[in-house]
Amino acid sequence: xxxxxxxxxxxxxxxxxxxxxxxxxxxxxxxxxxxxxxxxxxxxxxxxxxxxxxxxxxxxxxxxxxxxxxxxxxxxxxxxxxxxxxxxxxxxxxxxxxxxxxxxxxxxxxxxxxxxxxxxxxxxxxxxxxxxxxxxxxxxxxxxxxxxxxxxxxxxxxxxxxxxxxxxxxxxxxxxx
Length: 177
Description:
By secondary structure, this protein is mainly beta. It is built from one helix and 15 strands. The protein starts with a strand and ends in an 11-residue tail after the last strand.
């Protein structure tokens, strides 16, 4: 399979093929690689390259995929699809619709309670990754129906930390001019 990926703003040609059940051969730019892989979950892959094991964490992003390797996160995009789509404006559909960490993190504080009403943008959970705290906010107004984590929990990208039942009241409607 041939791809052109945009990684850190650079277009890089990638060719890859699965040579055996869990072995992959790839050419990334001018570098040839062979690796064994094991899918841990929908958001985690274990790779072994030249005898060195590493975990790769994946998370969906409106602009592409967030790929975290060794504590560094890159936005990876399909450059061919970007070229076909052309420039676009961000709209409400591009905003996150779930409360999920952007990378492997530890829950520091829970700022909402089950049954509590939250407004769009209200902080609901604080997570820490690589000594930096990130506040995760409610993506829309609604009622917190469940807290799926506790302070001190290790959490992964894609793991929903807080379930919010959307409130389709007038405060969620776009303003009219």
